[in-house]
Amino acid sequence: MPIKTLHITNNYHPSSGGIRTFYLALLDAANRLRRPMRLVVPGDTDRVEEAGKFGRIYYLRAPRTPVFDRRYRLILPHAFLFPQENGLREILRIEQPDVVEICDKYSLCYLAGVLRQQWIPGVRRPTLIGVSCERMDDNVESFIIASATARRLSGLYMKKIYRPLFDFHIAVSRYVGNELSGAWPEAEGRLFILPMGVHAGHLGPQHRDPEWRARLQREVGGNGGTALLLYAGRFSPEKNLALLVSMMEKLADRSHVSGNHVPGRPMPDCRLLLAGSGPLEPWLRGQSVRSDGRIRLIGHVEGPAEMARLLASIDLVVHPNHREPFGIAPLEAMASGTPLLVPNAGGVLEYANEDCAWLAPPEPGSFASAVLEALSNPSATYAKAERALQVAARHDWRQVAVQFFETYEALHALRLRTALARPFAPAAHAEELEPAICSAAQGGINTALGSPGRHPTRS
Questions:
Q1: Same domain, 48 and 71
Q2: Contact status, residue 340 vs residue 392, Cβ threshold 8 Å
Q3: Which of 349, 367, 394 is the last residue of a domain?
Q4: Does residue 95 form part of some domain?
Q5: pLDDT above 90 coverage of the chain, percent
């Protein structure tokens, strides 16, 4: 009988990005696989939404976050710490999940400690899995303070408080996993790298619309020869959007980047389109005015069909964040057959390399030069884009979501078997998994990584 999984996160609102996409993909897979799945997220009211025969979303009334990005709401620890707060506690009593997976490092993670100690009457002890879709040290540096002391404190929090709360951890990239695995000899068998995915079947070069593209070129003040660059994602401090503004300044001053231009070809006239929203939007609008229209904000793209057309109809996707935990948006560009430029660092390296994308140091001059190189070498750019389509196909959500469920089942089986034999040892190793279960989880993880034989843990 399939196990029941309950997932809880604060990183979810109606137009949020990667984590919401992740959970919706899991709900879709849960219905295909006939596996009961429950999702708990913050909302403006308490309500329940049925998501197919096997999926259910619980919205818990929660306040808006007071800082950073007020589009998000926060389920705070009192929702599960105090007996008089029955919302989340009652959900756990009703659902009795076999696995509780938490994607939050700041408030919801403490629920794992409450469940481990069995402090909620009538709720059996589930397998506890922490999913890391970001690095805490990067968030502290982006939103609070950049200092060596802050990074040390983040490391202590992860080692002494966050990490011990869970039986197992899943990280969406080695870049994210490295924050968890540092100086942790027991990481082997307790930390798994499971990359996220992309709706490859919804994207592709077949969605290119030449007439719409020509109209877009005119709307941004260009002509048929204007190159359209695109950033799609949150307008948030951790995304390093200042790099793109400086990059456009370099491209406007041709003398700084002409060395990377192919002789005999006209220098491209570039426009940068910014699709999305977020707390940096006012600043970006000011930069748009300063750029004489070379930078244009086009708002939130409504619906997958519009995003597919946009991605397929532009010349180059530029993603500036060298600390990206994984990066679904760049992977969507690859699934669209559109050339991609990313930093040579961060979680994007889980799938992007010199064979299928343009990589550059996260510095304005280097990014500007890479833009010119990509636009001036159509044959190389085409070859990279063709290989990118193959990489994206290996990361299709229909496969990746199944691998997550297989991993949940394998880790739950390991905890139960270990608990029956002796009090659960947090340092249990992967080889203690039942052979068949271990094979399923190992195979699923390696398939997601696109490199059979690579071990899924990093220590």
A1: yes
A2: no
A3: 394
A4: yes
A5: 69
Q: Yes or no: say if 65 and 73 are a contact pair by the CB < 8 Å rule.
A: yes
In a domain, 455, yes or no: no
What dihedral angle (degrees, nearest 10) is formed by the CA atoms of 435, 438, 444, 446?
A: -100
Better pLDDT: 15 or 398: 398
Tens digit of each residue's pLDDT (9 = 90 or more) over 178-205: 999 876 877 778 999 999 999 999 999 9
B/e letters for 217-231, b = 16+ CB within 10 Å, e = fewer, are beebebeeebbbbbb
User: How confident is the prediction for the chain on average, in pLDDT?
Assistant: 87
The rounded distance, in Å, linking the Cα atoms of 47 and 355 is: 47
pLDDT surpassing 60 at residue 139 = yes
Query: Does residue 413 carry a pLDDT above 50?
Result: yes
With bands split at pLDDT 50, 70 and 90, how would you rate the model's confidence at 454? Answer: very low
Number of domains making up the chain: 2
Q: Are residues 82 and 191 in the same domain?
A: yes
d(CA 448, CA 429) in angstroms, rounded, equals 21
* Domain ranges, residue 89: 5-197+397-449
Tell me which residue has tokens 């905890």.
415
- CA 444, CA 193: separation in Å to the nearest integer? 11
| Tokens standing for residue 168 | 């197992």
CATH number at residue 185: 3.40.50.2000
Query: Do 118 and 221 reside in the same domain of the chain?
Result: no
Q: How is residue 129 written in tokens?
A: 């899995």
